Structure formats: structure tokens, C-alpha cells
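A student in our group prepared the protein record below, which I am reviewing. This is what I was given:
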Amino acid sequence: MLAGVAMAMSSVTVVGNSILLGRYKPRFAGKKPIAETIYTSGDVKKAYSLQQTST
């Protein structure tokens, strides 16, 4: 009986934490990441291309 109560409390804790995580909004959610402003689509294509380029 004690094990059943422990399992039930564990389930309640997991569900409660998942609800809290779903409602979580970080303070910086509205800011744009810096990495998106540094790299352009041309840079990404150049980095992942299989052809060697001469510079």
C-alpha cells in the first residue's frame, strides 16, 4: 500500500512539473539570437558545399 501511494505521488509530481514547464517563458524570449544576424544563407551554402573554392 505504501508503494502504491509513492507511485501515485510520483505521477502527480511528474504531471505537475510538465504543466509548469509548458507555461514557462524565459525573460529573453523576445530577443533575436545573435547567430542569425552573423550568418547569411550564402555563408551556410559555402560551409556545407562539397566543392572546394579557391580564395
Observations:
- Residues 2-48 form one domain.
- The longest helix spans residues 2-23.
- The mean pLDDT is 77.
- The radius of gyration is 24 Å.
